[in-house]
Description:
Layout: H1 2-7, H2 13-20, H3 25-38, H4 55-63
Amino acid sequence: MGISRVIENKESIRRVALDFGLIEPSILGDWVRLYKQKGEAAIQDTYPRKGYLTKDKRAKVIVD
């Protein structure tokens, strides 16, 4: 996990963000800050993304 690399291994936020392909390192910085303030529960995915439609399902939705 990227947060542990920053906190435990003292790696830079910028380096870890690049390794994970984050466009903006401040995203990881925000997660690290939340983790330090509120613990692991603060960074849990409470609103998961809705499933993406496959190409066939998208075509069916358009036709219907």
